[in-house]
Amino acid sequence: MQPLSLKLNTQYGGDPAPSRINYRFQRLWLMRSFRLFTKLILPVFLCLAFIIFCFSNEKTLNFFKSYSSNAIDSFADRPELLIKLMSIEGASQPLERIIRDTLPISLPISGFDFNFTNIREVIESLDAVKSVDIRVISGGILKIRVLERVPEFVWRKTPKELFLLDKAGAIVGQVFNRAQRSDLPFVTGAGADVALVEIANFINLLKPIEDRVVAYSRISEDRWDIVLDSSQRISLPSEEPELAVGQFLILNQSENILDKNIERIDFRNKQRLTLTLKDNEINN
Q: What is the pTM of this model?
């Protein structure tokens, strides 16, 4: 038998163990606080240090200001960002003219210089405007969609002030004489603007004699008088006035009471109807 000979290879490339520095770093990396410091705290600190350094130097600060201002201006002045035209929808011609004259803008204007909030507040401050929607559409067109209040009543607030009201009692505009809107029901007296719902009910009930109704007068902010032609007046109670109007219509249909020499038909006392003649008073 041949003897076995064992040869040891004592030549190798190097020690596979990590270096001391690498070993210590690996040990540190296992610590959660060290990883947090390396990934978050250190970068933030370096960024803050750089920012403080830059802004503490006046020349560097002026450079950044000038550069950012020029960049914003060059971007804002691009033709595709300019608002060139204005379109107003949903407004009558008089209101459209008022809106165009009131808006504090001069077209064309950059979209970066356009203050949507300010423009919306200016338009909504107009009495005739209920709500407004503002947006910029393609082509550089400022589109203003207006929901206009519709006048439904003429209100004499004081002997020298006439206002147009919508059905909710909001002021739409002002007129200078009744003839300007003679097509609308006429209401008078303090507090009439907050009780227009009752007027709408009266109008529906009084259709048989609507051509004789002159005005609806609010008395002491509590009840209504219906003023008719020929200086006649119907005094309604503060409670259930519609019921009193219905009773009046029945009475007029059966007795033709409006054709008589009566000045006032008083329903304020539910227990007794009072008729006032133009010369004296008679109670029923």
A: 0.64
Half-sphere exposure of 198 (CA within 13 A, CB side): 25
Helices (H) then strands (E): counts for the chain: 8, 15
pLDDT value for 8: 46
182 close to 214: Cβ distance less than 8 angstroms: no
pLDDT tens digits, 97-114: 999 888 888 878 877 777
Residue 265 sits in the same domain as residue 205:
yes
| Residue pair 74/107 in contact by the 8 Å Cβ criterion | no
DSSP string, 219-267: ETTTEEEEEESTT-EEEPPSS-HHHHHHHHHHHHHHH-GGGSSEEEEE-
pLDDT tens for 159-168 read 889 999 999 8
Phi, psi of 46 (to 5 degrees): -65, -40
Q: Comparing C-alpha atoms, which of 148, 161, 149, 211 is closest to residue 187? A: 161
Q: Is the pLDDT of residue 142 over 70?
A: yes
Dist. CA 251–CA 26, nearest whole Å: 105
**Burial status of residue 99 (CB atoms within 10 A of its CB: 0-12, 13-18, 19 or more):** buried
- The CATH code of the domain that includes 186 is 3.40.50.11690
CATH at residue 91: 3.10.20.310
The tens digit of pLDDT for each residue in 193-227 reads 999 999 989 999 999 999 999 999 999 999 999 99
- Find, among 242, 175, 251, 253, the residue nearest to 203 by Cα: 242
What backbone torsions phi and psi does residue 233 show, to the nearest 5 degrees?
A: -145, 140
Q: Which two tokens stand for residue 258?
A: 């409006």
DSSP type of residue 66: H
